[in-house]
Amino acid sequence: MEALTALFAGFETALNPLNLLWALIGVTLGTLVGVLPGIGPALTVALLLPVTAKLPAVSAFIMFAGIYYGGMFGGSTTSILLNTPGESSSIITALEGNKMARRGRAAAALATAAIGSFVAGTIGTILLTFFAPAIADIAVTIPPSAKFALILLAFVTISATFGGSPLRGLISLFFGLSIGLIGTDLQSGQARFTLGRPELLDGIDFITVVIGLFAIGETLYVASRYRKTQDVIKLEGGATMGREDWRRSWKPWLRGTALGFPFGAIPAGGAEIPTFLSYTLEKKLSKHPEEFGKGAIEGVAGPEAANNASAAGVLVPLLTLGLPTSATAAILLAAFQQYGLQPGPLLFLTNADLVWGLIASLYIGNVMLLLLNLPLAPVWARLLLIPRPFLYAGILVFSTVGVYSLNNSVFDLFLLALFGVIGYGMRRFDFPVTPAIIGVVLGPTAESFFRTALQQSNGDATIFLKSPLTVFILLIVVIALVLPPILRARARRTTVTG
């Protein structure tokens, strides 16, 4: 009942006309960037951080949440019409959805993706409403040693999940941690890794790192692989479904939601794993298995629902523990820090209006997204005709102006260019960017919990072995590091002997 009372108070905040306008701007921007290939919600929120610094915190986060959900909605349009998934979680949608489009069923594919996203997003937000406060109450009692172990678990599992190689993921993570250590140590007052540059005494602004790695790196990468021809399937009319499509879609929507939410809520869950699991499950349960690989509607409905349910799940550890499990969540965490807020269990007590206003806005945003995506699908499809050079040139200009406006510093522009080249290199050689971003954001927090735990024990490192919860989490960390190489080695031996 307390959660419902708080949610109603949140609706009072979210239904403020100004906040409704920011929600509409957010979902519209989110759909737009979801449709455009290569521009996701993480990049968009990062680009907007300098611009929104003067906005009230509630309005800014309502807009960011709309961008996050809208990006998940819009990504299906690119996958279905262009066969180009903007996010890795949309690969399955491209596999079946584009086949449906080529069979003349683009409208049905877009409709099941949009309605499935709405159903999953709404159910996921309901689960967030009731689970988040309960987890926050428990999280208050977690000691600093266990919080450090939780962040360590997030580091390891995220590094192993993103990208094709766990080693590359760990290298990316350590790069991000190194960036996070640059500046003045707040406890000792000593300068660290500043190379004698006074501009680095306050550290490197997170926004500069993110925009460099994401925006500039992505722009350089796309430019190096630019193709002038784009095979876009034309769409006449809105996104609509027949009775048979509804009958074949509603169960995959529910099953996809059940898979997506828990995977989003655990560290390194993300949306990739549940979308693949949903596709496999639907293929096994379908009465039309022969259609899979040729354009089965269940292969669009289930994975899209899993994708959007995971987006709601991602907000659970972010709001209750301050742990981001995706690139967008990491940038949202940085946005909280920009406003002097630290997500975690105390956020529900100290900034209840912000938290519940944000959660309430997700319900409103889902309805807005459904109204935007079903009748306006052809309009969004036309965005795919924007020439890529114009699009990415605009991103470059916006990125440069945004970073320069932070401190009016030419040195920041030099850092932006440096991180842009590094971001291009990471994409070129298949190093995932997300672990680096999470390392930059969570590195200082992990260091703070580590030092606090040692101070409480007067420097006794066995403090990390005295709490059963800490020991349990550290054992999972060790298993996560050791088990995958063992399983890969065993699989190689089986292949050789077989």
UniProtKB/TrEMBL annotation:
Keywords associated with the record:
Membrane, Transmembrane, Transmembrane helix
- Which positions carry the signal peptide feature in this UniProt record? none
Q: Where is the DUF112 domain?
A: 20-438
Q: Which domain of life is it from?
A: Bacteria
* InterPro entries, A to Z: DUF112_TM (IPR002823)
Membrane-spanning parts: 20-39, 45-69, 107-132, 138-160, 167-184, 204-224, 314-336, 356-376, 383-404, 410-426, 433-451, 463-483
One Pfam family assigned to this protein is: TctA
Q: What is the name listed in the Swiss-Prot or TrEMBL entry for this protein?
A: Tripartite tricarboxylate transporter permease
* Natural source organism: Deinococcus rufus
Its taxonomic placement starts with:
Bacteria, Thermotogati, Deinococcota, Deinococci, Deinococcales
